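Hi all, long-time lurker, first post. I run a small reading group and we've been trying to get comfortable going from sequence to structure in the token notation. Rather than ask abstract questions, I figured I'd post a concrete chain and ask someone more experienced to write out its structure so we can walk through it together at our next meeting. Sequence below, copied exactly:
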Amino acid sequence: MPESFDHLRVNRDRLWNSLMAMAEIGATASGGSHRLALSDEDGEARHLLIGWCGEAGAEVAIDHVGNIFARHPGSDPGLAPVVIGSHLDTQPMGGRFDGVLGVLAALEILRTLREFGVTTRHPIELVDWTNEEGARFAPAMIGSGVFAGLQDEAQALDVRDSENLCFGGELKRIGFAGPGPVGGRPIAAYFELHIEQGPILEAEGLEIGVVTHAQGVRWFDVTIEGAAGHAGTTPMNRRRDALLGAVRAVDLVSDVARAHGPDAVATVGQLSVRPGSRNVIPGSVTLTIDARHPDGTVLARMADELASRIGTVVASPGLTVRVDEVLSFDPTAFDQSCVAAVRSTAEQCGYGHRDMVSGGGHDACNIARIAPATMIFCPCVDGISHSEAEDIRPEWANAGANVLLHAALEKAGIAG
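-- Answer (accepted) --
Happy to help. Here is the structure in token form:
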């Protein structure tokens, strides 16, 4: 990289102001963000992003599943772009920075390149992936999954939410069913900046996490059927209480994770009881299971145990159980060259850093299947994420964006 650009930095205040402006869309009373995928709030956030990208001189394109791309041109348009970004959708009553930091840091990089007249050989392209969280439409990471050929486009467009609204219909409703084909676009390198979602960097006083791997994930939907009945007139020995079976299932999930510790985790994050009346015995319960481990062999063993044992554990006269796997994601080893670029860039910028394994699933894990990719972490306060209490410091966002900038420049090359 020419020496004249070694000290190039993003505008810290402009980046922070953009984060705060985006946080106003779907803002919650307790300081978080509620911006589910393909909701009105998601549509408003997308329009704001596109307006900002236009002001930065970027050419915007949208594909069939709503992924947004904004390109800063390179001197050689035939070269594949270096892609940087993340997602704008949030968890229900979630935080202001999860995913959003990666998109708006990418925007700040486009602004910085234009402001300082930097021309790269490869184009540099911002991306906002659709439905990373999977909170409204499961599975997670649909936009990047279809792009990478890991999910079928037609099936993705027909995915339903809890109100039976389909992904494709909601995409059209908010105006983001784009004309472009999904995937088939070469990527020279992909970098995703994200908050750590854990406590390590803050505790160690470091600004940057160099992400070398991401752990695997398995998601299951479990349906337990019994029989509804009057809570006051049905004897205990005649009941087919689906919630009692669900309680046993939740206990099993915890037991399986603890048996494969210390790296295994498993969570029941959603549980729906029907009919849902105070004086009616639950006749049907659905629950979700999220199981994770950095070792694919151990994760497969956990999944097998959950699927095979849950029926036995739930067993009670008259109860039936169905287990459906809705997501299977192998552990990811990120590209060594991209990892090295992040590590050397952190050193070049003078930031404290350490290697890390991501505990969460991210769009970068999908893109790593088809292109060189890695992630950059910055600290978050107390490691809290997926919560209204999620918080970061302006200087952490600035450090992450500067590392993202120079890692992208290293892979894109400076023209001339």
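A couple of things your group might point at:
The first strand starts at residue 59 and ends at 62.
The chain has a mean pLDDT of 96.
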